[in-house]
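Bench log, entry 3. Co-assembly request; chain sequences pasted below exactly as received.
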Amino acid sequence: QVQLKESGPGLVAPSQSLSITCTISGFSLTSYGVHWVRQPPGKGLEWLVVIWSDGSTTYNSALKSRLSISKDNSKSQVFLKMNSLQTDDTAMYYCARHGSTMITTGAWFAYWGQGTLVTVSA
Amino acid sequence: DIVMTQSQKFMSTSVGDRVSVTCKASQNVGTNVAWYQQKPGQSPKALIYSASYRYSGVPDRFTGSGSGTDFTLTISNVQSEDLAEYFCQQYNSYPLTFGAGTKLELK
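Structure output for the full assembly:
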């Protein structure tokens, strides 16, 4: 079955960078895009970025300068990197699978990872 | 960016009631709206996509409706397990955006 699982450092110091990995199973990264969404504690959801099956990307322009996404199809892993973290980047970071194999449709999320909590603190 | 407004942060209900959660888009998004349920400590779970299509396994007491800018998630015969937070999401254009959420609570 389709599964996604995030792994991350837990705690990051202010101004440092964050690297999170999403390991997937039950589908292929060459067929589906994978998105990143974050949720600060007690708050709403914010979409960050997607990497498409062909390796192209679409970023939230509000965060584009600080974000980088990549993937390793053979290892079924997607990588998110964020630079210059501040306290308001403290959030649960989720990866989620695109709803269809077509880029132009289905950008809703039937499959989510469990999330990895990232706390930005000295 | 398209703003999705869920004007009610909290809604009170009783088991067996019918409740409607609303979501308004700042511009026309067609029927490119999904609804999610989230319980504390859990990831969001998809309920509705394309505004009115129930996702696999979702009980039929959950119904989505609307098009254009106004959308509604209706829960009929509310059960105790439905007490959760509900988010709408538009996927008509990027960046994808979510409503701020509506928490369903017991009266």
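The first strand of chain B starts at residue 4 and ends at 5. The mean pLDDT of chain B is 97.
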